[in-house]
Amino acid sequence: MDLAAFYRSEFAEHEQVVRATLAACAQPFERLVASAVAAIRGGGKLLFFGNGGSAGDAQHLATELTVRYVKDRAPIAAVALTTDTSALTAIGNDLGFEQLFARQMRALGRKGDLAIGISTSGKSRNVILALEAARAMGIIAAALGGNDGGQLNGVADPLLIVPSRTTARIQEMHILLGQMLCGALEKELGLA
Questions:
Q1: At residue 63, what are phi and psi to the nearest 5 degrees?
Q2: pLDDT tens, 134-161?
Q3: Which of 1, 76, 86, 130 has its CA 20 to 30 A from that of 98?
Q4: CA distances, 167 to each of 96, 121, 162 (Å)
Q5: Hey, is 60 helix, strand or coil?
Q6: Model pTM?
């Protein structure tokens, strides 16, 4: 293996996906920020969820909001539906893995909240079902996806689709977009 060539190739692909994401996600990002600001100003919260690395992103972003992103400030209401191991294992065991997030959405979500599903493939059934549950409850259902958006199309709006087929590059853009959401929220809410 030519490690130097691999190193350069990974950076080159990352740079290409950054440019493509910059062009593809500007408008949906603005709508995501506006939806998040409206939810928080209206007394609602942000509900993040996803599987695997996306679960890690959900937890990371909820923490940035409830604790701080740039500097100390008032907390911003956010929850990751990926953290309660008792609920996750009970739902998975009793109702099935597909219901992991939809069940929690119905229990914890309220009209005025913002649901944000994260799925690199756009095919995660438990994410899709939670977004559908959110919509049925009058909750705005947003998502971060990749490739062509998969089954997130028509279910999530706003929908930020990273134009790549490489999972690692999609995940890199998801955390960038998520952290940008945190920074934008701090500014828009006058907390930065």
A1: -65, -45
A2: 999 999 999 999 999 999 999 999 999 9
A3: 76
A4: 25, 8, 10
A5: helix
A6: 0.97
